Amino acid sequence: MYKYFSSAYKFGGIAGAFSVLAFISLSFLYPDPTNLNLVFGYVITPVAIFLAIKFFKEYSNNGYLSFAEGMSVGFVAYMLEAMVSLVGIWLVLLLHTTLFEQIKESKLEVLSGSKESIVAQVGENSFNLTLESIRNMVPWDIALNDALWKIIPGLFFTIIISIILRKNPN
């Protein structure tokens, strides 16, 4: 079993650590690092999945890769990335409550700044529900959102990369 997932553990863990470091670095530059960290995740996730599957294919599986093997390795890579990112960002926000309050305030400002267009599109009730959910937001919500936005694209990228790198023995 280790043969199947050794590269996935390495690249998923490294990508998760980079994601946490990116969140911390971006927090020094912007009051709300969450959106740019999501963009960073869209870049690092496919790179980590590609490298995990490629290293598995070349160094653990003699140059062969079935679609199922690629999906399994990719799944472990993006799930580990998401879990490391979730725990890391959650701990950062728990330890630095001023950063969390700064993010929350920034999200409230963005919401109030676009109130008219939101109300016109989805109605007053939806706007008020969104406003209330942001007011009740906790650090776990931000960390979970970041992790989910690594899992969803991770599945998509894993399918594509597994198809591209697939090579079965004749």
Tally of separate helices: 7
Through-space gap between termini: 24 Å
Q: What is the strand content? A: under 5%
Domains (count):
1
Shape, principal axes of CA atoms: elongated
Note poorly predicted spans: none
Mean pLDDT reading: 93
Number of strands: 0
Largest sheet: none
Proportion of residues in helical segments: over 70%
What is the alpha-carbon Rg in Å? 19 Å
- Please write the string of helix (H) and strand (E) elements: HHHHHHH
Task: Describe the protein in words.
By secondary structure, the chain is mainly alpha-helical. It has one domain (about 1-95, about 140-165). The protein is built from seven helices and no strands. Helix 3 (about 65-95) crosses helix 4. The longest helix is centred in the middle third of the chain and has 29 residues, at about 65-95. The radius of gyration is 19 Å and the shape is elongated. The mean pLDDT is about 95.
Highlighted features:
mainly alpha, DUF4199 domain-containing protein, 170 residues, 7 helices
Short description:
With 170 residues, the chain is mostly helical. The protein has helices at 2-29, 34-60, 67-95, 97-113, 115-122, 124-135, 139-165. The radius of gyration is 19 Å and the shape is elongated.
Secondary-structure map:
Blueprint: H1 2-29, H2 34-60, H3 67-95, H4 97-113, H5 115-122, H6 124-135, H7 139-165
Helix pairs in contact: 1-2, 1-3, 2-3, 2-7, 3-4, 3-7, 4-6, 5-6
